[in-house]
Amino acid sequence: MSVPFEKYDGAGNDFVVVDDEDWDSAVSEHASDGDADGSAEDTSPTASRAAFARIHCDREVGVADDGAARHGADGVLFLSLAEGSDTAEVTMTLVQPDGSIAEMCGNGARCVAAWAADRSGATTIDIDTPAGTRRAVVEGDEVAVEMGEPSFAPADVPLAGEEPLIDATLDELDGTPAAGLSVTAVNTGVPHAVVFVDDVDEIDIDAVAPPIRHAEAFPAGTNVTFASRTVDGAGFRQRTFERGVEGETRACGTGAVAVAAAAKRLARLPDGGRGDEWLTVSPPGGDLGVTVPPDGPARLRGPAEKRFAGELPAFDDDRIDGAGDEQ
Ligand SMILES: N[C@H](CCC[C@H](N)C(=O)O)C(=O)O
């Protein structure tokens, strides 16, 4: 039983894209064919989606690009497209490599818009996410997407404490590789702990990020985004250790917005900016543009490209069951 997919990426943050209709017919065929072992996990779409994501996002043995140079993905985008007259509407569900569902994904949303434009010809796309509906506009090979208003409120991030974390050190990090680092906690659709450093290239992210990612200060966990000013001072370099990927990604859209929002809150924007100018934030995978205006939603802009298409086993029971059992 296989399911068609397309591989997209936004500045190297890459996703397997599956149309919900294709997934649902694979699920119902699988159940009716009696392939299912009869357990709820085997045919329940949610559990099966998690198992599908675990297997095909794996960086060692997951989906391979044409040259098999790179395996896996930063998540699976399950999409449902409704076409209007000159706009399109897409319901987006991002299942991450650990099987978790993320409330929002900035680069994923931009890839969703490119996918919808490729299918419908529309250039304005409304994307329904668990974090709310976000409007995207496709402009050539770039996509700009509204990202809502960043929030530092403890209830929004969310935080365990009553006070916002603004350039704050966490006692619980003492004795860990993250000891002494200051974090600024902001929700840009998902939680981010932003850490400004002198040079992001000097960070041992796999050692320093996990103590913050799992800190008790963040009851829902958090993504960990490091930022340093570019040499010319006009923008920021960015590196993000992502919750749900449990590792560094080549780009993170909500992370780029978090850098701009935290820089604005800490009066670190270039030339004392108010945030309504486009700010370049540069993760390893490519440049992103961000605005964080005083009176409206943040916006994220950058490339979103289709790389290749194919078919993947949806319910290869020998492999999926194993993955499902790990839950
Ligand atoms: N890992 C994130 C979701 C994906 C965010 C990132 N890929 C982006 O482009 O915003 C989380 O679980 O909060």
UniProtKB/TrEMBL annotation:
Residue ranges annotated as coiled coil are: none
Q: Which SUPFAM superfamilies match?
A: Diaminopimelate epimerase-like
* Main localization (coarse): cytoplasm
Enumerate composition-biased segments (Basic and acidic residues): 316-327
Where along the sequence does the record put site: Could be important to modulate the pK values of the two catalytic cysteine residues? H192, E242
Which residues are involved in binding substrate?
A: N13, Q96, G106, N107, N223, E242, R243, G253, T254
Q: What is a single molecular function from GO for this protein? A: diaminopimelate epimerase activity
Q: Which residues form the active site?
A: C105, C252
Domain of life where this protein originates:
Archaea
Which reaction is recorded as catalysed by this protein?
Answer: (2S,6S)-2,6-diaminopimelate = meso-2,6-diaminopimelate
Task: Give the GO biological process terms.
Answer: lysine biosynthetic process via diaminopimelate
Question: What are the entry keywords?
Answer: Amino-acid biosynthesis, Cytoplasm, Isomerase, Lysine biosynthesis
Entry's localization field: Cytoplasm
Entry EC no(s)? 5.1.1.7
Which Pfam families does its entry note? DAP_epimerase (PF01678)
Query: What segment(s) does the record annotate as region Disordered?
Result: 22-47, 272-327
Q: Top EC class per UniProt?
A: isomerase
Listed under GO cellular component are: cytoplasm
What pathway is this protein a component of? Amino-acid biosynthesis; L-lysine biosynthesis via DAP pathway; DL-2,6-diaminopimelate from LL-2,6-diaminopimelate: step 1/1
Family per similarity comment:
Belongs to the diaminopimelate epimerase family.
The record's note on quaternary structure and interaction partners says: Homodimer.
NCBIfam families membership: DapF (TIGR00652)
Which HAMAP family does the UniProt record give?
A: DAP_epimerase (MF_00197)
Q: What does this protein do?
A: Catalyzes the stereoinversion of LL-2,6-diaminopimelate (L,L-DAP) to meso-diaminopimelate (meso-DAP), a precursor of L-lysine.
Q: What is this protein called?
A: Diaminopimelate epimerase
Protein species of origin: Halolamina litorea
* Classification lineage: Archaea, Methanobacteriati, Methanobacteriota, Stenosarchaea group, Halobacteria
Name of the encoding gene? dapF
